[in-house]
Amino acid sequence: MEASMLAHVTDMDELQKAKVEENTRHTLEETLVHDKSHVMHMLAGTAHGFAKFFRDKYSGKVDAAAECPRKRMMHKDGVMSICWSPCGHFIVSGDRANKLRVWHPKTGRLCYAATFEDWCTTVAWSPDGRYIAAGCMDGHASMWDAKMLTTGRDTAGNTILCPITREPLEDPVIAADGHTYSKTAILDWYKTKGNTSPITGRRIFDTDVNPCQHMVRAVKRFHAKARIHTFEHGESVHAVCWSINSAKLVIGGYNVSVGNEPIKVWDIGIRKCIMRMVHDLHDVYSLAWQPGDHRFEHLASTSSAGKTLKVWRVRFGDCRHTFEHSDYVTGVAWSPDGDRIATSSNDWGVRIWGHYSGILLMEMFHDHFAMCVSWSHHGHFLASGGADMSMCVWNADDGTLIRKKNYGFQVNDVKFSPNDDVIALASRYSTAKLGKPWVSRIMLQKAPLEPEHIIEYDERGRIINKLTDENGKKIRMHGPDQYAIMASP
């Protein structure tokens, strides 16, 4: 009798210990999102795939640490577009599985997923962080409440997150403890953790689950409330972008019908189209709003069929410059000061143009189609991805190659994080042999350090540990994933 009681107490101690560890991990995850004093180290490309959380408020010492598996941000089909949130805590993506997804990149946790009628071709986060815009191949663009998508809660505090996965509920069911879970999550919990409640930690004698129609309706109401507005565009939407003050949304795509221009500028406050512009052959592939404070607001648009980049004055709707290419123009990005424009093209080239001069400043090349381009926020680096299965980081001042990393898949989109320490890239690749279904993934890679931050000199003013490449450039290596080009002192 005493032995059985002792075994029962031991089991309860183990259950309580497991419950405390699980609650600690969830608390650290939630704190990481809302409290900037908690930082996380994540080594991209490590084999074990673990994320470590460190609480370091003032002294920098580690007060508490926990390890949890870092999930991979996987998609069932090709990722079409990605975008960072202004705070850098989230990534939104659109894919060819008709899904809009919001991720927490440091843990790989899925915060939200919405389903469209067709491919979700483009996504953009507003600069003020309040809205998310998404375009679809069915000719519609939608505007979403970013706070609801990232927290999983509506204005009344109601949540649609599963207590186990911390992700939106899928096929909600009620367990014997009276709580609602995703069906696959609770069944996997019973198989791995035993017949215990994920919330209370107590033993459950009935493992049957029943559908929860109330939560099914609640999830539908949440989706309807999160979608603020839907914009009718035309035949298909290929690109969306926000103005600097988040007051205007620009939608671009493919329109050939009369009176249905491929570029439309919408005023978010009154929900009306205030300007229309026509690009070559009514086909717009990408859009970018000029950053900075300028006398006139300018918009850059590229055409795949027209093989051109055009710069427009938004107020008047007139074209100021046209930059010719020899093949489809697949991507565009402004420099942070708004004086230069970078483009990627199917002629394998990545080019930098002068906005006011209208001339070609420099050009770099991939080994195959250049699919996308992104400018760092400090203005020194330019990242590009291509069909040659590589991501390149270029020096935006002289066009030299800083880093080239090869992958086993095509790089469809690249984006620098707001603090320029991480580069997110979207891919489409297969994890198995030919003939298997294609899957995609969002990957994170360390970005090169800024040149002025990595130059170190000795007492005599000489660079420490310098290396010289074939062009005579000085290179400083700070680890396997960090490289930078430096000029001589």
Task: Give a brief outline of the structure.
The protein has about 500 residues and is mainly beta. Strand 35 and strand 36 form a beta hairpin.
Describe the structure.
This protein is mainly beta and 489 residues long. It is built from five helices and 37 strands. The strands form ten sheets. It has a four-stranded antiparallel sheet with strand order 4-34-33-32, with no helix packed on it. The longest helix has 33 residues, at 2-34. It is globular.
Query: Can you give the helix content as a percent range?
Result: 10-25%
- CATH homologous superfamily of the largest domain - what is it? YVTN repeat-like/Quinoprotein amine dehydrogenase
Q: What class would the helix/strand composition place it in?
A: mainly beta
Strands, total number: 37
Largest sheet report: 4 strands, antiparallel
Q: How far from one another are the termini?
A: 81 Å
Assigned CATH architecture of the largest domain: 7 Propeller
Rg: 25 Å
Keywords:
41% strand; 5 helices; single chain; globular; Methylamine Dehydrogenase, Chain H; 489 residues; mainly beta; disordered N terminus; four-stranded antiparallel beta sheet
